[in-house]
Request: fold
Amino acid sequence: MKKIIFLLLIILLGVNCQAQFKQKGKKPNQMIEEIKIVKLIEILELDEETQIRFFSRRNQHLKEQEKLIEQRYQIVESLEKAIEGNEKINYEQKVKEVNDIENQIVQQRNNFYKSLSDILDYEKIAKLIIFEIKFNERVKDLMFKSMKKNKN
Reply:
């Protein structure tokens, strides 16, 4: 039953997203994040104190991830411009920089999960990992389905 409600929420989000975003003044990512927070509280069975500690640490983790992703994006953009403009740059160095940032992203995520051991037991950390992967896959699938539907 919970899965059905969850899927209905995601589908409704995809179907009515433009009207809702304009009406509420929220970006799509904000609405998805709000749904994610509600589901995390439910799945991890977080009490108020644990919610505060968990989401504080999670928010810091997301900020750090965002910085790394932005750095990667900037390098990829510079690579793309160099390739399109037939520029002679040190491609090997740029590729190494992208790979280094990818490694930092993975290491930072691993550090985040390890840091949760004083807040959550490992079963809940496992539930978190499973939820995040499956949630992101569902959102991507719904976005692609919505894009295909809008093309037809």
User: Anything to note?
Assistant: The radius of gyration is 19 Å. Residues 3-23 have pLDDT under 50 and may be disordered. DSSP finds five helices and no strands in the chain.
